[in-house]
Amino acid sequence: MPRHSLNALLFFLGWLACLLGGGQWLWTVALVLLVHLMRIGSWQREGKLLVSAFLFGCAVDSFLLQLGFFDFGEARQLIPLWQALVWLLVGTTLYHCLAWTAKPWWRASLVGACFALLSYGASTWLGLVRLPHGEAATLALVALIWASVLPLLHGFARLYAARPM
After folding, report:
1. CB count, 10 Å around CB of 50?
2. Where are the domains of the chain?
């Protein structure tokens, strides 16, 4: 299987594991990350990018949580781990199956907005998160944010590729 196809499949499996939960979801994400790093990428090349995507995404979503756009059913300061790991999984795609979206920037914006609608819409549909400010308004906001975030993450990828560890 070509690397980009395997990367997309691994991302999808990890994303589904995060959304569908169950007792094995964390192990599934760990296995996806391990297979990615052994067969597609490497920690040495992608480590900073994965950590950056994880931390940046957690900060953005936690900020939206603090503003009251997300309700995960309990009082919390940070997003749940399953949501945070989706951002880590997004990081695994930037050098691989989503590399084609890096240029021109609008391509990453379009894909980011579409993925936001899919991912957050699925989370809402599955009952993992409630959107107190309304589904349409919040999904539109998240799509706009992702339209900015994915090009920014590609900028991190370019920066790290230009300055290896």
Report:
1. 21
2. 42-162
Q: Residue 100 in 3-state DSSP? A: helix
**How far apart (Å, rounded) are the C-alpha atoms in residues 46 and 48?**
6
Distances (CA, A) of 162 to 16, 45, 95, 156, 165: 32, 11, 13, 10, 10
End-to-end CA gap in the chain? 29
Alpha helices (runs of H) in 67-102, residue ranges in sequence order? 81-91
How many Cβ atoms sit within 10 Å of the Cβ of residue 56? 17
Write down the H helix ranges in the chain: 3-20, 25-35, 43-66, 81-91, 105-125, 135-162
For residue 130, list its beta bridge partners.
71
Can you read off the two tokens belonging to residue 57?
A: 């995404």
Q: Given this model, what pLDDT does residue 21 score? A: 85
All residue ranges of the chain with pLDDT < 50 are none
Cα distance between residue 8 and residue 114, in whole Å: 16
